Every structure is written in structure tokens, then in C-alpha cells.
Amino acid sequence: MKRILTYGTFDLLHYGHIRLLKRAKELGDYLIVALSTDEFNAVKNKKAYHNYETRKKMLEAIRYVDLVIPENTWEQKEDDVKKYFVDTVVMGDDWKNDERFESLRKYCDVVYLERTEGVSTTKIKKELGLQQAINGVDQIPFVKNKG
User: Fold this and answer.
1) Which terminus of the chain has fewer CB atoms gathered within 10 Å of its CB, N or C?
2) Residue 44 catalytic?
3) 38-42, 45-49, 82-86, range with greatest mean pLDDT
4) Which pLDDT score is estimated for 140?
5) Are 119 and 15 in contact (CB under 8 A)?
6) From the candidates 2, 22, 25, 46, which is the catalytic residue?
7) What distance in Å separates the CA atoms of residue 87 and residue 97, rounded to the nearest whole number?
8) Which is catalytic among the residues 2, 22, 25, 44?
9) Is 2 labeled as catalytic in the residue annotation?
10) What is the rounded CA–CA span in Å between residue 27 and residue 129?
């Protein structure tokens, strides 16, 4: 059995996420998704719209995903690969050449998949008028001046 592992926040689940998961699953038999916890997102200065438990349930409902595990730190990747007997780590190509993933090559294959053009969580937030977190508060529509 060939095991595949990917990492992400998977907030505002969209077609790009589904396409990444589908292509990752096609590389093996068993797909593990390490999902960033709310606490880890805070370390990364990121705030998801949905909390960890909701994002986990959404991922578990996707037929390509076999197991969802928490991503708590940047440093856990090597341990995850060993613990889950991972053959290949798959990430979007925006992570290409990042040492956090390149360092895993001594334990498994590392594959970068092309991102889906025209869709991203950042783009969706922008088009919906959602702004980045301010004082720890996220997902507030921009207020337009009336004057």
C-alpha cells in the first residue's frame, strides 16, 4: 500500500483543494491530510473561517481522504512520515524548494503539484470583501465610505 501525505489549512474549501486532494490520492492508495490546528494557524499568523473540528469534518467527507491528522508544528513532518509509513509527501508547487519539505527526501518522495489557476482562499476572501485579521478578528467585510 502506497501512502501519501499532504499538509494544509483547507479553509473555505474550494475546487482547488478538491483537485489537489484528487491528484494526491491518484499517486497512491491511502491519503493522509495533516490539517493545521487553530493554534498552529495562530503561530503562522493565519486565522481560518472554520475551526479545526469543522475543517476536519469537511475533509473527512471527501472520498479521496482516508485519514485526517492534526498539524501542530512546522517540525512534526519528519515524525509524521515515519509514524504513518509515508511513501510520498505532496504539496502545491508554491512550496517548491522549501527546506521544510525538501528535507523529507531522505525518508520519502516529495512531489509538488501545480496549483489550480484562478482559485485560492485568498482570492475568494478578497472577492467576497473579507479582510485579513485585525486585532485577532477575521472575516469582517470591508466597510465602504458613504460619503
Assistant:
1) C
2) yes
3) 82-86
4) 45
5) yes
6) 46
7) 19
8) 44
9) no
10) 36
